[in-house]
Amino acid sequence: MIVEAKHVVAGYGQRVLIRNLSFSIPAPAFVAVIGHNGAGKTTFFKAFQQQVAYQGQLLLQGHDLKSIANPASEGILSYLPQKNTVTFPIKVSDLVVMGLFRKKTFFENYTASDHQLAAAVLEDLQLSHLADHDFTTLSGGEQQLVWLAQLILQDASICLLDEPTQQLDVYYKSKVFRLLQDWVLTKSKTILCITHDLQNLLPLKGYLLNLSKPAPTLEVISPETVQENLLFLESGRQPVR
Ligand SMILES: Nc1ncnc2c1ncn2[C@@H]1O[C@H](COP(=O)(O)OP(=O)(O)OP(=O)(O)O)[C@@H](O)[C@H]1O
Question: Which of 69, 148, 162, 237 is most buried as measured by Cβ atoms within 10 A of its Cβ?
């Protein structure tokens, strides 16, 4: 199994958001994590980051998450948070190249070939023109793409992406979803992606995990399941727990 959740319960104090969640992803796959605002999607990802306490078990590649000392530096898990801020001026290319951190020792500088790798990822995302710009001056969508470029360089086996297309225009939304699909198919990555862009999921192969449902399970993405989940989400929401 690549990712497994066994009877996971998580929340904040008395407020339980994830109730007895179990699923298994046996092979590299794209999984769209969907649900109403406040359903607990980010909370679920934070459990993987050990930023939120949980009961039950989360397993990555067959190992209990709690037994893996540092899943990021071992190249097992990468995480793109919904919001990521930088408060100091930094060149886009310098921020992207930091995605190679796990191949470096603490004080080791990035080499010309590291920068070439970063430049190639920026080119794939059609962002080469921004390479020398100060990151803090970019638009919200451009910043989101730069973080994605950095995450691509991390090259982890399992990627958790929290609304990576939230601020993107229609062109980039579909480009990013195609790119994620391509990672799964050509690089055998497993992607868990929180999204509210259900229409963009239609061309994709993978699964939906709707955390607003009373007993969420993996549902194969198809026009029927996307439509059913859309109607489910549009039809109302549970009272705030
Ligand atoms: N540190 C915290 N302490 C207490 N409650 C929190 C904390 N962080 C989040 N919450 C609450 O938990 C609920 C779930 O938050 P979460 O961010 O997981 O939702 P979400 O499904 O990702 O929503 P969205 O689609 O709006 O991003 C929210 O009501 C939020 O206010």
Answer: 148
Protein residue whose Cα sits closest to atom 10 of ligand 1: 12
In this predicted model, what pLDDT tens digit does every residue of 7-26 receive, in sequence order?
Answer: 999 999 889 999 999 999 99
Distance from residue 38's CA to the centre of ligand 1 (Å): 5
List pLDDT tens digits, range 93-116: 999 999 998 887 777 889 999 999
> Closest Cα to atom 1, ligand 1: which residue?
12
Task: List strands edge to edge, sheet with 77-80.
Answer: 77-80, 158-162, 190-194, 30-34, 207-210, 218-220
Taking the C-alpha atoms of residue 227 and residue 224, their distance in angstroms, rounded to an integer, is 5
Indicate which atom in ligand 1 lies nearest the CA of residue 11. 12
Domains of the chain with bracketed CATH:
1-76+156-240 (3.40.50.300), 84-155 (no CATH)
Q: What is the ipTM of this complex?
A: 0.97
Q: Where are the alpha helices (DSSP H) in the chain?
A: 41-48, 92-97, 112-124, 140-154, 170-187, 223-234
- Tens digit of each residue's pLDDT (9 = 90 or more) over 156-191: 999 999 999 999 999 999 999 999 999 999 999 999
Which among 172, 91, 160 is positioned nearest to 131, based on CA atoms?
A: 91
Task: With beta carbons less than 8 A apart as the criterion, state whether 44 and 33 touch.
Answer: yes
